[in-house]
Amino acid sequence: MAVTRPRLLTPGPVNLHPAALQALTRPQLHHRSPEAAALVRGLRARLAALLASRGEAVLLGGSGTAAMEAVVRALFRPAARVWVPVAGKFAERWVEIARAAGLEPQVTEHPWGAAVGPDDLPPGRIDGALLTHSETSTGVLHPVRSLAAAVRARAPEALVVVDAVTSFLVAELELESWGLDAAVSGSQKGAMSPPGLAFAWLAPRALERLRPSGYYLDLSRELAAQRQGQTAFTPPIQIVEAVHDVLEAAWPQGRDDLARHWAVKAEATARFYARGAELGLRPVPSREEARSPATAAFYLPRGWTSEALSAAFAERGWRVAGGQGPLKGRIFRVSAMGYFTRAELERAYNDFTAVLRRS
Question: Do residues 47 and 199 lie in contact, with contact meaning Cβ atoms separated by under 8 Å?
């Protein structure tokens, strides 16, 4: 018996684009076929173009975290000193990955809900920086362009790596022109496809510094194979096809189509914040200009638990997200990052108001 599933108002996974759904219904494609090679080449080229990069994009089986670890191990040697500003759960993940790889993270702690600034760069030598663009746990968009400029001014040879898991295709982002050397994301966010495929972008400076590292997550091994249209290991080829088809359907002109899409996502998130303001909800981001278009985050209103709020949204056919880390049980998050028709979005806004009006 088919189970009715709530529509997703979560910051990942997200509602799938129709092109992704269609790709998933096709017969299984063999990953060593000429058709698969064409898909790999085509997707890599589209991904690089969407970040305006002269470098290369690498595909990895796994979530965005797989790409985070792969990039850290491929670009930094043990004992490298990397700045990691922590203002949320996913910045903490950079710290954990850096320590697991034997690096020496230079951690600066910031309030969850605040944006990191260039003046927060700590004193002393650094070999790189691991930054978070859209911090999904707080709904904050950090100014990675100005942070990268501060790093480059201090240490011109330092490599700047960015977690773009929920900002790719949702917020403005470029690689080299923003002073970024590498970025990572995944299929289950702005690409509106199923989980299982990670992306790593390497700008020319990063490609020059790339070194063999590990086995399965060795970017140098993957890059060598993918330049031939192959992959080093069995890829989630149907997800490769799904992402390829979504990018082709949603943004056929590449970056020329993206500005309109960014505006749509920003407006959708702004409308959730506007509804929240009408209801007296307190937003998690401390400043309006720091709000990420990927996620709207609010403190729970008096009288609500996270579980009760989730159940109230589920009754109306929606799945929402709770808090993480020190914000667990204190906030809730909604996201229009996935695929929505205009009518579905209007229903989401109205149901948001109806649920929260009970508080």
Answer: yes
d(CA 244, CA 359): 43
Backbone angles phi, psi at 78, to 5 degrees: -55, 145
Domain ranges of the chain: 7-13+257-356, 18-250
**Residue 324 to residue 332: CA distance in whole angstroms:** 9
Domain 7-13+257-356 has CATH 3.60.110.10: no
Amino acid at position 277, single letter: A
Q: What are the CB-based long-range contacts (under 8 Å, 24+) for 319-325?
A: 319/6, 319/7, 319/8, 319/9, 319/10, 320/9, 320/10, 321/9, 321/10, 321/11, 323/137, 324/89, 324/137, 325/88, 325/89, 325/92, 325/112, 325/137
User: Using CA atoms, how far apart are residues 264 and 170, in angstroms rounded to an integer?
Assistant: 9
For 18-250, CATH gives 3.40.640.10
In terms of Cα–Cα distance, which of 357, 356, 343, 354 is closest to 7?
343
Task: Please check if 333 is assigned to a binding site.
Answer: yes
Q: What is the pLDDT of residues 129-179, one digit of tens each?
A: 999 999 999 999 999 999 999 999 999 999 999 999 999 999 999 999 999
Query: pLDDT of 235-276, one tens digit each?
Result: 999 999 999 999 999 999 889 899 999 999 999 999 999 999
Number of Cβ atoms within 10 Å of the Cβ of 153:
12
Give pLDDT, residue 1. 47
- Please tell me the distance from the alpha carbon of residue 136 to that of residue 335, in angstroms, as a whole number: 10
